[in-house]
Amino acid sequence: MDDSALVERAVASRDVAAFSALARMHHSKVRGLLLRLTRGNHAAADNLAQETFLAAWRAIANFRGESSFSTWLYRIAYSRFLMQARKRKPDDQLGEWQETAPSGENATLARVDLERAFAKLSPQESAALTMCFALGLSNSEAASAMDIPLGTLKSHVLRGREKLKTILGDPS
């Protein structure tokens, strides 16, 4: 069953099973976005993902279908992240959310370098790049999810890409 049918069931009859199916379909991408924004802090990403889906369930009747359901979820997730970030002291934010790079046989050096480079971006740049490239959203969808103008989104993407090139030593 597709998103629109599940959303319709969740809205029309407060169908918990339909919303659970939506949550299962979108959980990994929402968590992935939050994991990137929290700079690899799995516990914070899990907590924020849970808050995102609880907020989405409470507000499902407000979903108007002006964007895709996933874009609506990303907007909620990003808003939750920003609310949490505002509650933290500026000095504590990076320290608590920054974990060491992933270890183990499966972690490649390129992935570790990219994660470290992303940790040096602003949350807005990281979110814009993640939504546009990792999640495959269009610029318009990402701007909607972040609740910012399209031009601002494009600026975050451009600045983020330039910073990544500099950090990773890309000569082009």
Overview of the molecule:
- It is built from 9 helices and no strands.
- The protein is mostly helical and 172 residues long.
- The chain has one domain (3-168): Orthogonal Bundle (Rna Polymerase Sigma Factor, Chain: A), CATH 1.10.1740.10.
- The chain is globular and about 55 Å long.
Outline of this structure?
The protein is mainly α and about 170 residues long.
**Compute the gyration radius: what is it?**
17 Å
What spatial form do the alpha-carbon principal axes imply?
globular
Query: What's the story with the biggest beta sheet?
Result: none
Count of discrete structural domains: 1
* CATH topology-level name: Rna Polymerase Sigma Factor, Chain: A
Which secondary-structure class do the elements indicate? mainly alpha
Report how far apart the termini are: 44 Å
The whole-number mean of residue pLDDT values reads 85
Low-confidence stretches: 91-107
Q: Provide the CATH superfamily.
A: RNA polymerase sigma factor, region 2, helix turn helix motif
What share of residues are in beta strands? under 5%
Element-by-element helix/strand order? HHHHHHHHH
Q: Helix share of residues?
A: over 70%
Compute the number of helices. Answer: 9
Briefly, what CATH class?
A: Mainly Alpha
- Please identify, by name, the CATH architecture: Orthogonal Bundle
Count the beta strands: 0
